[in-house]
Structure formats: structure tokens, C-alpha cells
Amino acid sequence: MSAAFSPPPSLFAQQEDSDIPFVGALLDSMETAACLIDPAENIMGWNSCYEAFFPEHEGLLRRGWSYLENMQNYFRTNAEITDPKLFEETVAAGIERHRMMRESSLFQKRNGRWLNSRIYWFSDGSCLKTWQDVTRQHSKSNTDLFMEGTDRGVVLFDADGHFEKANRIMGDIFPRAVDLFHPGTTYFDHLRAYAETTLAAHEAETMARLLNRPFPIRTPLARPLQLRKADGGWVELRERVLFDGYLQTLWLDISTAKALEKSNADLDRLVHELREARQTAEAASAAKSAFLATMSHEIRTPMNGVLGMLGLLRTVQLPAEAVDYAETAHQSATALLGIIDDVLDITKLEAGRVTLESVPFRPSELLRSIVSMFAPRVAERGVALRLQTDASLESVYQGDPTRLRQILVNLVGNAVKFTPAGEITLCGYTEALTESTADPDSVHLVLEVRDTGIGIPLEQQGLIFDRFTQSDQSITRRFGGTGLGLAITRELAQLMGGYVSLSSAPGEGSIFTVALPLPRLSEAALAALAKQAAQPSATFDLNRPLTILLAEDNEIIQRVVIALLRKAGHAVFCVASGRGALEALEEHSFDLVLMDIHMPEMDGLQATRLIRASNQPWARMPIIALTADALDESRQTHLAAGMNDTLAKPIDREKLLHTLQRWAEKPEKPPEAAKVTVIEPEQERFDHRRFSELVDTVGREALTDLIDSVMVAVTDRLVDLERLRDGPDVREIHAPAHQLISLFGNFALTRLHHHARRLATACLAGNRAEALPLIDRLVQEAEDDLPLLAAAAHAALAA
Length: 799
Description:
By secondary structure, the protein is an alpha+beta fold. Helices cover 47% and strands 16% of the residues.
């Protein structure tokens, strides 16, 4: 459907009283006849080509001349119609065709000239009508060439409806009706034969309507008619009435295009279903994360109070018995916190949200610290704990010692738990990597935890790395545990590019082996590390005592944090809400704010945003988040709100003092979004894997027709984009852009699919400024990328 364009401003008014129409000055240089017609169907302007193409109007053509009179004069000159009533009907039909015209129309004048007419409608009802001389392409001498050169089946009937000629393709489309292709048959004979031999039975009603029309046909089908074939295929019929009354029918087999249309619809539906499934899964994951964040906060908050108070209790003078009680309580609370951390770790591993650091470390030092940690526990039980390493572990490697330490703590902890007597040995050595692509400076760090404990039956060894699973449920009752430690160990090892293996037998003990690929640092890196180690370590002594604002609603947490801060020599002012923090900042001076996230009245995030937006002297004061939500994405939310740093509850004294040291001496501006130039990533142009899947789906025998249909459909849609781009409403471009999304996406044209999706979004939003450059880009890149599809199809057929 042609777009409605806004007319040039004051186009008619500019003509004034001039005898030379204004449009002529614009269009005289064209080889196309043009006539401007106002909403009342009066001629307002024309160019010189119009006078040349229609000399019959000489002496009559004038501004304000009725187009009805123009048509009457045209038919009076070009049609030999003596019957007044038939003449009026002919003129009326011509005017009606003019009013309903939305596509180009081909006709022949009495002098033999073939003209192709188009109309461009403006939003106020006026129009610009053009005629292009196509005599060379449609002259009588070229008729046969045209009929055999087209991809459509063409039949020509004379003014009485008798058969004149047909091309070869008609025999391909209607092979059972070829005996009708002779002068003794009529158009209606052909329609009946097509219906009986080729078309589906349910098309009988449509064919009856075609047959009920009077002949000669003066008003052909206004738009292409699609008909279903008995074999499930489709054909399309177009009709053209020529000037001399001849009827030209054009038939096209559109079965492949229809199959492609259905395939696109099915693929779109599948994509929609997959998108909904993904959104459902993402929503479930988000809900799960929110639940874990809430539970983390709810559990860690009282744990923070327990551990904080026990920590303070250990710093004061107590009777020996009370010290023992306090130590036992502290160990129990720490163990409970470890379970919480395990649950969070397994969730983050499941969601792929665990990130690894890469820092220099010596494995020998890490292993010695592990042995030192567990030595008191195993000594109490009479079990020996040994360390065996070779010299290679004294080298420095690049990796994540924190996660490696977590792996070893899990494995050694299990060994201690399940070894009532005998010994536990922690072994470490390196092996050369066997992969051909391996870095020559990289090795396999192999760590073994050997014990003489209860062992694991062979049939249960495949289960112990599963979550919430132990080799025997009686083990849980006897030794305790959640069954998460080994699951976390395996997934962390795999995340680091390595593996965990097990060798065990009941009553003989177990050997857990961890192998991780790690790069060994060069001599230069070692020298830099030694220089760094020689620097004095940071202390937590500030140059001056601080005045700190604590915003925390939990009284237990208040007491713990206040005690920690006052013990370090700092003054603390405490409020119970974000609103209270805002009021305190207006009334007092502070060096730093410790801000809880979850508070009544106003939470910490909202309070932080208001502080940063206040333009007050304290708007740039460092704000440290206090939160029991230990998920990584929560930290990003805190920073995005304007906070400078995050402290996880339970509050660790050293971490708290270190954070104060880092921020209190330098009131800093909160993190701002960096002003960067966004460079659109390079898009992959063609997805060969997706195209291979398409070939496997449709088969090579159908590939040629399918690709040809796609090329035609893409070309038509790109033409639509160009035609509609200057229309008054950019949202009209959305339909062809949306069709291109499916065409490009289903046929592996990745870059074009990306740009078509952006164009459709821009059009739907009415964003002309974004849409028009995307059209230009899409048209240009289509010229570059469509040959990739053709080349891939050629390669697939040659394979």
C-alpha cells in the first residue's frame, strides 16, 4: 500500500496566477510525465512530458481543469465508443480506478505508446500522478520475449475473452489444462478447468465469483488473488486489462514462499515460546536470588550480633572457664556462618556468578597455613597431620589462592571429620601439561589429601560430589554436615580449569586429588613480588580519631559496631533510619557514614541517593554500606546508588578498620558513571552453524527455490523501506522492518538481523532520527551480506 506523504508547504499557493504550473518547474527535467491533482480532483500543475504524452489535451489543459473532464477527453480520443451509456461507464470506471489506485498500472494508448502509471497520495487527499513511457519493453514485437522471459505463467485473451497465446510456464503450473491453450477457448473455460484439475475444492466459491463477472472485464482484480491447490501448494492470480480490451492474466506458483511464510511463523512462535521460557527461568532465578539475599540478611544480622559480642568478650579479662565457653560459642557461630556461606556459594556457582581473581601466590605457603589451621584439631584426636611438598611449590604462580584455600579447607576438613585414628597427609607437587597448546610456563599443580579414615564404597563414590548428598545418610547423623562441601570443591576446580578425583575403599581411607593448570611467574615477576613484599604492611592506625555516623536499625548490631569503633578510639553518632541519617548530617559534622541497607522509613540506598543529590558540603562524604546480603550483584547495586564501599555482616574488626583507613583520610566523590564513547561491537555477518541447521531442515532439493524466494522477499521489503522512509508516520516502516527480522534471522544473516531489530524498535517508538540512518545502513549492508547467503547456498549444493 502506498504511503501517504505530506505535500510540500504552500505548493499550490506558490503558483499564484502564473500560466506555467509550479510543478512544471520542478519536474520538466524528468523523462516522466507528471500531473498534480488537488483534493477536489482539479488539475493544479503538470510538466512538459505530460503535454508530450497526451497531445489530445492541447488547448484544453489549464490549472483548475476537472480531472473528470480530462478523462472524458482522453477516452473520447483514444477509445472508439459510440454508445453514450457505455462511454459514461468507461469514464466512471477510469475515475474509480484512479481513486482506488495504490499500485502501478500498465496501459497502451491508441497511438501504440505503452505507459506505466503511478500515483503518490498526499495526506490531504491531493496526489501526484506520473506516467513512464515503457513502449520499448512492451511493444508488440517484444510481447513473446516478455512472456517467455518472466517467471510467471502468462495468458493473453482478446477483447471477446478468446485465447490468444500462453507461455511455457503456464504448462508447468497447470499441466492438466494445457489442452485448453488454443484459440477456441475462453478465459472462463480456463478458470473452470483450473478449478477442476488443479485447485482445492474449497476454492469453488472464489472461482464462482470470478466466473459471475460480465465479459469483457473492465475492472480487473484490484489486488493479487491467492488460491490453494489440491496438492497443498499455492498459486497467485493477477489480471491486467490492456487499452485495446485485451486481458492479460499472470499466474505465479507461490508454494515455496507460502512454506517459507509458515516456517517463519513457526520459527517466530518457537522463538516467542523460548523467550517466554527464558524469561520465566530468569524470573525464577531472580526470585531465588532475592530469597537468598533476604535469608542471608535475616540470618547474618543476628549472627553479626553473636559473633561481634563474642569477639568483644574475648578481648576482656575473663575466668578460664568463661574463656572456654566464649571460645566454644565463637567456634559454633563461625561454623553456622560457614554453612550459610556454602549455600550462597553453591547458588552463585549454579548461576555462573562466581568470579576468579588472578594474583601471585606461593602454594607452599598456602599449604603450610592449612596445616597450621587444622593441627590443633587433629592433635586433640591423636591423629597425625603431615605435609609433603617438593621444591616446585616454592615457586610463585598466578591464580586464585582464596578459592584454592576453600577447596583445601573442604577436603582437609572432611579428612579430619572421617579419620578417627591414623594420619592425614597433605601432598603437593607439579606436573607438566600434556596439551599441545599449553603455555610452556604453565604446569599442573597437583594437591592430594590422603587419610586413613573410614573410606567410601565404590558404588557411592559417584554420588558424593552431588549437592546435599553424602555417601551414607547415617554419616549425616554420625558426623553432621550439609553435603555441599564436595559439590563446591568440584565446581570450583572445574571453574579454575582443573578437576577433582577420588580413590577410596571402605576401611582403607581415601585420596582426594585436585589438579589445576597454573602459570609459573617469571624471574621478573618474582623480583616485582619481592619488592612488593619488602614494602611495610598497612596499619589500621589513623592520624586522628573519627566522628562516624552509624545508620543501623538493629540494636544488637548498633551495640557491636559502636563497641568496635569506640574501642578503636572513634566517636559514634547512631540513628535508626535513612531519614534520621539525613537529619543528623544537617545538624552535625561527620568524617564518614556507615549505612545499613535495610531500614524502616527510608532505606540506605534511598538515603544515599538523596545525600549525593543534595549539593551540601557533606554530599561527597564517604558512605560505606553495611549489609548481610552477601551476593555480588547486591554490591553493584550499592555502588550504583553512590556508596563508596561495602562491608558484609557479620562485621569483621580488621576489615572494618581497614575500610576506615582507606576512606576516612580522603573524603572522595562517590563513583560516577565514566563518560565513555560507546562503540557498537562488531556484529558477526553470517551464522554458518544456523545455516547448516536450515539446510538439514529444508533439504538441499528445496534450497535453490527457497533462497530465490528469500532474495525476492528481502528486495521487496527493502524497496518498501525506501518508499516509506519519507512518509509522515515513521511507525508505518515497522511492518516491513519486522518482516526483515524474521527473514534475516531465519537465514543466518546475523548482522542484518541485528540492524532490522533495531530499526523495528525505533519505528515502533516513533523515533525518526534513529530509524532513517538505520534504513540507509540496512540497505547498504544488505548489498554486502546477501551474497554471503548465496555463496553458502552454492557451497551447500556443491557439497
